[in-house]
Amino acid sequence: MGGGKKKIGEQVQTTYTDRVVGKFGQFGGMFDVSFFKDMEKPIMVSSVDGVGTKLKVAVECGVHHSVGVDIVNHCIDDILVMGARPLVFLDYMGTGVLEPDVAADIVSGLAAACRHAGIALIGGETAEMPGMYSRGEYDIAGTIVGVVDEKDVVDGTSISDTDVLIGLASSGLHTNGYSLARKIVQEVAKKSWDDPFPGLSKTFGELFLEPHRAYTGVYDLLADDTIKGIAHITGGGFQENLDRVLPSHIDARVDISSWDVPPLFQYLVETGNMVTDEAYRTFNMGIGLVLVVAQEECDRVLQSPALAEYGPRVIGRTQSGSGTVILDGQGI
Questions:
Q1: Is the whole model's pTM more than 0.85, yes or no?
Q2: Which among 101, 128, 152 is the end of a domain?
Q3: pLDDT digit string (tens) for 129-148?
Q4: What are the PurM-like N-terminal domain coordinates in residue numbering (predicted)?
């Protein structure tokens, strides 16, 4: 085993749980699912995603660990909204010429995020395709598989016209809106990634590479049907994600003045001369996950220790309607 492969193998194996079957380097990853027998009707939930053009920032900054974290956390959130707990993760990396240190940094981020969430990184593929990528460039994608008992699926069907929307803070841009954000910073503002961001002790590059947040604390609230619906605010923003959990006869009204928009988003909107609808459709604007709960459960959810690190706050309400998202107030 080469030095680079050995280093990657060591990282991967730190994610193994007692349910992993076999060893690193096999043609396929195996996972013991005999515990499914304890569920009434286990439902497998899977998702695949990438990091998008955030990778351009990583390459230009020479920082690769965080995008490994990004791909895992993004995928966790995509199945968490269904109530599913993650079990295994598989990754793919495509590049022109493999740079072992870069690959090792990416996998270290993958492994760290998997360990934090108790996920086994049971497989992956690295493809060298000269001519497909410029030197130093690469793409990564990840696939996650989780499980939820059918009776515990969170699908929004129980949402009524008197429920409350609770927003959980994002850690930054997460993994969406980077093509426009990069253009605003590099072409409109003429900034470099190592330039200090106005008023903060971080550079533009550091803010742009802040890892996607995984909202694993939400799992503590899923056992008793407190949460009626969950929306991951990714590509498409509020308008094209929150509506995915709404029944066809319910609208969601989001009060965009109910939270302080973080400085990075204010900068991008003002410098890019963006209108409100475009801003909240492109970026998460400081809210990465939205929970829909009954009015009588609102205070308990807001005060839950499991959500404290996400700064939960009421950001809107539901009403009778046609399954659309309405933005109210002045955000920035």
A1: yes
A2: 152
A3: 999 998 899 999 999 999 99
A4: 44-148
